[in-house]
Structure formats: structure tokens, C-alpha cells
Amino acid sequence: MQIVTLAIKDLRLMLRDKIGAFFILVFPVLMGVFFGLVMGGTPSSSRGKMKVAVVDHDQSEWSQRLIAELAKNDGLLLETDEWESARNSVRLGQRVGLIAIPRGFGETAAILWEEQPEIQLGFDPSRRTEAAMLEGMLMQASGALIAERLRQPTQLLPRLDELRRGLSESTRQDPVTPILSELLDQVADVIDSADQLQRVEGAAENQGGIQMQFANIKNIDISEHEDPGSVRAQLKKIRSRWDISFPQGMIWGILGCAAGFASSIAREDARGTLVRLRAAPLTKLHILLGKALACLIACCLVIALLTIIGTALGMRSDDYAKLFVSALVVSIAFVGIMMTMSVLGKTEESVNGSGWAINMVMAMLGGGMVPAMFLPQFLQSVSGYSPVFWAIRLIEGAIWRQFGWHEMLLPIAVLLMIGLLGMVLGTLVLMRRYK
Amino acid sequence: MIIAQELVKSFGSIRAVDGVDLAIQRGECYGLLGPNGAGKSTTINMLVGLIAPDQGRVEIGGASPRLAATRRRLGAAPQALSLYDELSGRENLEFFGRLFGLTGRSLRERVHWALDLADLQARSRHRVSTYSGGMKRRLNIAVALVHGPQVVLLDEPTVGVDPQSRNYIFETIERLKADGMTILYTTHYMEEAQRLCDRVAIMDQGRLLAEGPVAELLKRFGGNKVVVAQVTQYPDGVKLPETLRDGQLRFEAAEPMETLAKLMAQGVRFQAIQISEPDLESVFLALTGKTLRD
């Protein structure tokens, strides 16, 4: 009961401090809205390679050529995979996207007058910028394939002959058929001529922009696995950029809570109220737990507030039960971090300063400031050490990544461990300090 | 009610409290006097259980002050204003009342009583940040009393307050005394201790120099009464107890009226005479060789 009394007092103090309340409650919303509006924003630097899965259903010479063309891009790291595994890896954020080459691709690929086979492109919705780049690279590779076809007229001529034969055998009596037939004859003549072929080849190489329109690329939703006509699937189709920006806003709110409550112990010490609390029939653990509970409630409130505002703007959670669990786990983790931060200094200023310094590093490494993709490779490799990385991963898992409970286990375990360690460390140091 | 035996507390190489013994009876108002840095607040902190003594022991009502049950019987008003500025006076009282286990009607009644005591009913819903220094001091004491403790420790409760609020605080403490509350009062204002305390202990550099009822201390250490007289006429050959300076005669005597009568009989005439009783300031001077505000 006393812990609740302490927590209510701290929450009341938080809300009465207008600037503090702004950074904990309003700022994260602004962050979420701002990043939502600019989502898709700046192009990626070439510092990090995009991991892309390739699913080759065709296994033909031409599908292999397409993969080889794609592999020429320095910015891509291609990994061949099976469809389900590739889709999951993108959904889990392990890869930027997937390219699925359909069966029969090799039969008509890069033949200009044939309907182009549909290449499926799936990508992580939080990496729209990279997805656009990937689509461009795919177009470029398809263009290169067309040039390749034109270099091999012997492969084109049989298809051309088939078409001409079909037209001549046609019983249709319309004015277009004779014209088309004559046109195909002329094309065949052109291909027969090595000089003409050279000219066409040169044009193909020099006018990459024109070639791209001949690739048939279909963007697919990597999270789709149920009936596309279901309400759930329909909702997903209209899901918005807020799905991506609001988790980041939530993280900033939680970081604000952690820093704010971390300095509250030093503040109580400075204003003398800690003496009064310690003179009350409370243990030091009661006082700490009161702070922890207040911080936990504040973190959950921030997530709830952002969920409500985000939902109003168009954010959708796959599973609100999972979002609730995620909110709780992330809050517990940051309560632990708050308790460790609270003992980093003895004055309010020192705790505040060190707390925000840690926040910034955690946010930067963990993808709270910019997507981890934009970081240099060596920084990307240490993202996993940042609690922010796991927190975003878990919240996104509940909002749009469609994490199953088993997939949530790892981030939950990591975050709970961080929370527990933080609590123990903070408690021990504080107990020692006020022995 | 309060027992402290051989209390010792050091901070690094500084011995803040050095072998302090206290025995304060139920219903007594006990003054702990000394200049700043004498070790009064450290002693209070040990009595409240905020810091553990390096040596010695403390008992409040026969139990350790570190026990929750003992703390419920204790109220402490720290020297620094220990209030939440963002909360109103009423909210501060309610919060601390709840921490001490008050709820519902009893909480409301006690908060009402404490607001009356501090004369803050009219401003009870205003934030503490808008209060004057005197109002904050009164609230600081009210918070210590809201849960109805049997023992209250008031650490320099009148520091930085205006004369009006100081008087109000004195009256409050006198009311508490009349209600039979045990009070430990620390101050470096001797006149406060003389007015309020049944017994006082004089402390300097972590040690208790003397202890007892005020009258007894004055008798033992206060010295003679001090006479300051403005002399208008004195005949040649009359021997004065001290040298006359600018027409003013200043001397000390156990029975000053006798001395003055003898002088007047010898033809000495005075325009004004002031006789001062020895006070605790004199006691402190006699004990330490320095004044309280040195």
C-alpha cells in the first residue's frame, strides 16, 4: 500500500512538472508523428549491404542469370532460400527483403513482346527506402537480361518463328493481323543482321531507363499468410507508416521516463524529502519499489497513449494481447535501467546528464534514432547490445511483424534479464549509499 | 522516552558526534543547543534511525528507531524544508499521513488538525511553491505531526523565518508541550531554548558540555548579573567597581542592587541603570570561551 502511495506521489509530481511531462508524454507523440510523416525519407548510404533473400522457383538458366545480375550490385548481399524461410526472415527483420522468381520465368523473361513473368518483391515495411532501392536494382538486372537476350538471336528466333506461324495459321480476318505479321517478319530480318543486332544491343545498354519498364515486379506483403479476403488481411493492406513511427515514439517516451525517474531519487535527496521518507516506517526497498512502480506505470501509460493516438492515425496492432505483454516487458526492462541510472551520480544534474547520455547511445545503437540499417557495419553488429534494439523489436513484433509467442520469447527474455540486472545493481548501490 | 548511550559517529576523519549520552523523559521538552556544526543534526539523525551510530545505542520508547513500529511513534521535522513544492500543503500532509498508515476518516481528521495547527487552512490547496518561508516552516512541522507521534524531533525549526512565524511556532510547541508530547528541540538560538525547554544540553564539537534544567545551568555556569549604568555625577574619592568609559559604568556582580545602593550612598548619581540576568549565551561562553555565533 505504501509503495502505491509513493508511486502515486511520483506520478503526480511528474504530471505537475510541465516540462518533464512534455518530454515524457508529448514529445514521444511528436516523434511518432514526425517520423511517420517523413517515413520513406532519405536514401540509404552504401555503407551497409542489404541482405536480400532470393527464392528461385524456376531454377532455369535465365533465373540464374537474373540472380547473377543482381549479385553484381555491391550494395546487395544475396542469399538463396526457400519461400517460407525467406518470408519469415524478412518479417523478423533479419533481411531487408526477398525476391521470388516464379516458375516459367526463363521461358519468356526479357523477351520484349512476351508478357513478362511476375517477379515478387517482398520487403520489411520499416525499410521502405531500401525496398525502393531494391526494386530499382531488380529493374536494372531485368534490363541487363533483355540486353542479354538480344545478344543471343538464335534463342529469340525460334520464339519469333512460333509467333509468325501462329499468325499465318490464324483464321481471324481483321486488319491488324497482316500488319502484325509483316512487322514480325521485319523484326526477324533485323535480328538476322549482325550489324543491326549490334545497334540494338548498343541502344539497350545506353537506355537502361527504357528497358526497366519491361520487368513485371509485384510488391507483396511479407506478413500475408491468411486469406487475402479476410478482414484482417484487408486491415493490413491499409496499414500505415504509423506502424513504424509509433514504436519509435514509444521508445522515446520510455527513455524519457527512465531518465526522469532516475533523477527523482537524487532530487528527493537534494530537497530533503528523502530524509523524511527514510524517517517514515518504510524500508529503503519500499522507497525504491515505489519509484519503480511509478516508472513502470508511466512507461505503460506512454505506450498506451501512443497506441491510442497511433491507432487513431491508422496504426494497427496484430495482437493487442501481445502489445500489452510487450509494453509490460519493455517497461520492466527500462525500470531496471532507470534504477541503474539513478545511482550513476549523486546530484540531480549528474544523474540527468549521465542518464540522457546513456539514452542517446542506446537509442542510436538500437535504431531509436535512425534505422540500424543506416549505421556503419561495425555499429550494426553491436545493435543487439542495446536494450532499445530489443524493445523496438518486441513492440514491432506485436504491432506488425506478426511475431508468434515463441518468436517473442527471445526479446522478452533479453529485456527481462536487462530489467532484473538493472534493478539488482541499482538497489545494491543505493542500499550501500544510504546505509 | 529517548535514550542515547555513548553515541559516536564519524564522517571520514571528522568525529561529528563523540560520546553523547541523552535521557529524555516522557512529556519533556529537551533542548539540544550548540553552534552550527556542533553535531546536533547528526545526533538527531541517529535518534531517528536515519544513520547508524559507529558506537553506542539509541532507544525510543524502549525500542530501536529503525523498527517501523518505533517510527510510527516518531515525528521528525528536518532542518531543511522537506516538502514537495509541486504538491499543495494538504497533499503533502495526506501523502505523509498515508505513509504512516493513516487512511480514510482518520487521515482527513489528522490533516485538518495539522492544517489548523500550522494556520494553513486558507492556503491548504495551494502549491507549496507559492508559500512564504514562514508558511513552509509551519508546514514542515505539521508534516512531522500529522500522524500523531508521541515523540517529535524538531531540528532548528525557526531557521530563516520572520518574527511572526517564529512566535507562531513557539506557541505551537507550547501547545504540544501542554498536550504531553515529548519534544527534542535543537537550536542555536539560546532564547528559544530558554523559553521552551525544560532541560537543555549544550553541545560543541560533537560533545555534550553540560546538561540540566535551564535555571541550574545558569546558576552553575551563567556567572554574575551584568550592570550597565549611565553615570551623571560622582564625587571625588569614590571608588567605582570598574573604570568609567564615556560616562558608562559596566560591571558584574552577584548582588548588583547592593553595590548600586552603596555607590548612591557615596553620592554617585545615575541617569539609567540596566541589570541583565545571565543567560544561556553566557553559559555557552563560560563553557567554550566563545559565543554561539562565532
Q: Would you give an account of this structure?
A:
The complex is a heterodimer of chains A (435) and B (294). In chain A, β1, α3 (61-71) and β2 (76-80) form a beta-alpha-beta unit. In chain A, 68% of the residues lie in helices and 6% in strands. Chain A is α/β, with parallel strands linked by helices. Chain A folds into two domains: 2-38 and 241-433, no CATH class; 50-226, abc type-2 transporter like fold. Chain A has helices spanning 2-16, 18-38, 61-71, 83-91, 105-108, 128-151, 153-169, 176-192, 194-206, 208-212, 231-237, 242-271, 273-279, 284-313, 320-341, 348-366, 377-380, 387-399, 405-433, and strands spanning 50-56, 76-80, 97-101, 118-123, 216-220. Chain A is elongated. The two termini of chain A are 24 Å apart. Chain A has a five-stranded mixed sheet with strand order 2-1-3-4-5, with helices on both faces. Residues 40-47, 194-213 and 226-235 of chain A have low confidence and may be disordered. Chain A is built from 19 helices and five strands. Chain B folds into two domains: 2-220, Rossmann fold (3-Layer(aba) Sandwich); 224-277, no CATH class. Chain B has helices at 40-48, 68-72, 89-99, 104-117, 133-145, 163-178, 190-196, 214-221, 256-265, 280-288, and strands at residues 2-11, 14-24, 29-33, 55-60, 74-77, 151-155, 182-187, 199-204, 207-213, 225-233, 248-253, 269-276. Chain B is elongated. The model of chain B has no long low-confidence stretch (mean pLDDT 87). The relative contact order of chain B is 0.14. In chain B, the strands form three sheets. Chain B has a six-stranded mixed sheet with strand order 5-6-7-3-8-9, with helices on both faces. In chain B, strands 2-1-4 form a three-stranded antiparallel sheet, with helices on one face. A three-stranded antiparallel sheet of chain B has the order 11-10-12, covered by helices on one side. By secondary structure, chain B is α/β, with parallel strands linked by helices. Chain B is 35% helix and 28% strand. At the A-B interface, α1 and α13 of A face α2 and α3 of B.
